[in-house]
Specification:
With about 270 residues, chain A is an all-alpha fold. Chain A has helices spanning about 5-10, 15-40, 45-75, 80-85, 95-100, 105-125, 130-160, 165-175, 180-185, 190-195, 205-220, 245-255, 255-260. Chain A is built from 13 helices and no strands. Chain A starts with 5 loop residues before the first helix and ends in a 7-residue tail after the last helix. Chain B has helices at about 30-45, 85-110, and strands at about 5-15, 20-30, 50-55. The termini of chain B are far apart. The chains are: A mainly alpha (about 270), B alpha+beta (about 110).
Chain lengths: ~270, ~110
Amino acid sequence: MAQDDKAARGPSVAEGAALVDLLLQMADDDLVLGHRHSEWLGVAPDIEEDVAFSSIAQDEVGHAALYYELASQLGAGDADRLAFDRPVGERRSAAFVELENGDWARTAMRHFLYDAFEEVRLDACTRSGWQPLQRAATKVRREEFYHRLHSRTQLHHLAKAGGEAFARLEHALADLWPYVASLFDLGPHAAELRATGVLPADAAALRSAWEAVVVPELSELGFGVPACGGTDATSAAHRGAHHPALAELLTTMRAVLDVDAAAASW
Amino acid sequence: MSAEVFEPYQVFVRRDALDAMEHVGTVMAASPEMAVLVARQNFLRRDAAVGLWVVADADMHSANTDPQFFAEELDKSYRRVDGYSDNARRWKRFKQQALQLQDIVRDLESKEG
């Protein structure tokens, strides 16, 4: 690591808290959606997609592990404990990723919308002044190339199939849209993250970058995009406002840990 | 999975820029694009590669499956190169013989002289 970069000196205490919060947002989002994706293991519509989608799920969990590790290096505690052992109230994931999968159409639509969100968040992170984040984002983004291609191709195929597939996607989009705002809640330290160059973008900029990508694509496929901006359900617009489904997800994820916390090791 | 929607695709992978494409298996997919995407995860989740082809079964042309197409009934050993495998040993033996012949010739010449 270069001696002249900010990482060599380490972030200040205040920056550290802001950074940890950002890293936990990114990690929790990827862990929770990775877990949701993995729920299709064995029951995806076809065997090839079952394998492909599970692999994507593992990638997402791997990205989460990378962010937890960075948070751990900043003194947030053991990475595995961060992943498995935090109660709902301390989680920083967005309600958007916590919702149950629903049908395959809703899974595909969420995959598409989330990957586009990750792209804009990671794009900002690749310009981060904190080099460990900048480097991590650059690596993760290379892996996300495939995810984006997969999610877009799948959405296009399902949408163009018309009929029931299109109707289910349309329904999914309406279901998911109110939760989109939760992704763009960058937390209580957003202004500081921006001012210090750790995350050189604000929520509004990320959201308009995201809309510039997804809205034309959805329109082209024939979806009526819900009105953007102020119509989001405010109850779901903050990262603290977790979806009730998160608690059950965490219980499943912690099943082994809860049997014998002392014996659980990774 | 509906047979009218999903088609089999043969998958080929190039592991290294200097390697040939190698057949690795088959996937069922709804389009060539989806076949490429699922093939990447079904065969290259962990391994590195630099190239991947998928070919729809419908686009492949196969040899007749009648065993006569591949018939090999008579001795073909004369077409093989196996006979050359001990060339070095034979050449060495020949050189030794030639040397002995030369010795005899030289010996005879010296007596005649």
